[in-house]
């Protein structure tokens, strides 16, 4: 028997650990039931932290962990899927291809930043979408320090006022002062095509977020879109031109294009539609989790957003259930009743909320301490010892981080 997992992000890592956990519980040997994880590198990119300085440090090695739980690592990317023959095509960095057969498959390839066809964006825009992009941005910011002070050098435009855009914006002023000098007065502007900052975070949170932006001297341009970019500035839809050498695009995400290789229904974000056990609808033998799946979290209409906390739990359920089918034991119905948000607000601390209709639990430094715990402990892989690693992947308790994200049913 072979279970193949595509992707080594939060969902993929926990799918592998959870499947290995069930295999261990059922006392099945790795020789009888092989678990294979396919990814370009055996590393977990700490994507929730890529807005921070020193992004080159934000990848945690996985090979030792995978070896400890007897998961086979295959270097490369899944580029084709034949759901009838139950095979995947894997392409490695050298361009070599290989075919892997599977009995069950978990698609956990995450999401990518959506970059629209805006003139100049591909050539002159930056992002914090992946490790390479975050490193490129960090190097760019440091190169600016060698240039004479000017409006273009000292101005950063952030396109998008969602979760990522706010974290990038509030982190940017102190980050630039560290690079340029403590007396620097950088100008940071958030451009949002809609009428509100944090459009998905509720009217009760917005004043707190707006106050944090004001405290950080971050300007906003609402009901405004980026129309075009060049190497020295940006043109807005209002006709305003702003001189800048740095435009950071944070607006919009789509599921990895691998989901298009599955002959199944997808939503507007490219996510595969799955049932409550995370089976891809109408495709036997294929499961999906994390940002690759549109999954119901409960029975009252809440669906998992593209977030770290949902990816970890969905991955654990998908891996467990794929293994359960092969081992002939009951699967577990995915559920995630609690939605906790901890939004970094830079020098203003953070904001911690709970629930689908968010209720504020902590603001400022007290929430900032929780955010630092999440960013320095919770988002990292478990210890490489076999027993604690397997125990960490219990689908009912995975990535709880002391925030009460267990969703008992």
From TrEMBL:
FAD/NAD(P)-binding domain segment(s): 2-315
Source organism, top-level taxon: Bacteria
Keywords carried by this UniProt record: FAD, Flavoprotein, NAD, Oxidoreductase
InterPro entries documented for this protein: FAD/NAD-bd_sf, FAD/NAD-binding_dom, NDH-2
One Pfam family here: Pyr_redox_2
UniProt region (Disordered), positions on chain: 385-409
GO molecular function, one term: NADH dehydrogenase activity
Transcription is among the record's keywords: no
Chain segments annotated as transmembrane: none
Recorded family membership: Belongs to the NADH dehydrogenase family.
Protein name (database record): NADH dehydrogenase FAD-containing subunit
Species in which this protein is naturally found: Phyllobacterium leguminum
């Amino acid at each position: 028997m072979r279970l193949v997992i595509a992707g080594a992000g939060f969902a993929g890592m926990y799918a592998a650990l959870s499947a290995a956990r069930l295999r261990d519980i059922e006392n099945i040997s790795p020789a009888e039931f092989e678990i294979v994880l396919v990814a370009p590198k055996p590393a977990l990119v700490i994507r929730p932290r890529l807005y921070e300085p020193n992004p080159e440090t934000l990848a945690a090695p996985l090979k030792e962990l995978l070896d400890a739980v007897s998961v086979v690592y295959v270097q490369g990317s899944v580029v084709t899927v034949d759901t009838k023959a139950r095979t995947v095509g894997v392409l490695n960095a050298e361009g070599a291809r290989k075919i892997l057969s599977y009995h069950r498959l978990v698609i956990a390839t995450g999401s990518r930043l959506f970059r629209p066809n805006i003139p100049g964006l591909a050539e002159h825009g930056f992002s914090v979408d992946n490790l390479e992009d975050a490193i490129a941005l960090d190097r760019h910011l440091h190169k600016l320090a060698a240039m004479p002070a000017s409006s273009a050098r000292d101005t950063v435009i952030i396109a998008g006022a969602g979760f990522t855009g706010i974290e990038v914006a509030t982190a940017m002023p102190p980050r630039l002062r560290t690079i340029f000098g403590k007396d620097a007065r950088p100008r940071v502007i958030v451009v949002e095509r809609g009428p509100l900052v944090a459009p998905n975070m509720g009217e009760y949170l917005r004043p707190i977020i707006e106050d944090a932006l004001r405290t950080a001297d971050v300007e906003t341009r609402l009901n405004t879109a980026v129309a075009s970019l060049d190497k020295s500035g940006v043109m807005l839809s209002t006709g305003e031109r702003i001189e800048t050498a740095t435009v950071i695009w944070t607006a919009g995400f789509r599921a990895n294009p691998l989901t298009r290789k599955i002959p199944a229904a997808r939503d507007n974000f490219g996510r595969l539609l799955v049932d409550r056990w995370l089976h891809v609808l109408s495709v036997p033998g294929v499961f999906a989790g994390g940002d690759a799946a549109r999954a119901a979290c409960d029975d009252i209409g809440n669906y998992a957003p593209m977030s770290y906390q949902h990816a970890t739990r969905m991955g654990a359920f998908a891996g467990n259930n794929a293994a359960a089918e092969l081992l002939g034991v009951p699967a577990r119905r995915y559920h995630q009743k609690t939605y906790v948000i901890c939004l970094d607000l830079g020098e203003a601390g953070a904001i911690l909320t709970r629930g689908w209709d968010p209720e504020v639990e902590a603001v400022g430094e007290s929430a900032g301490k929780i955010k630092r715990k999440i960013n320095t402990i919770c988002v990292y892989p478990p210890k490489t010892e076999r027993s604690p690693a397997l125990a960490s992947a219990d689908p009912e308790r995975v990535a709880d981080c002391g925030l009460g994200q267990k969703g008992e049913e």
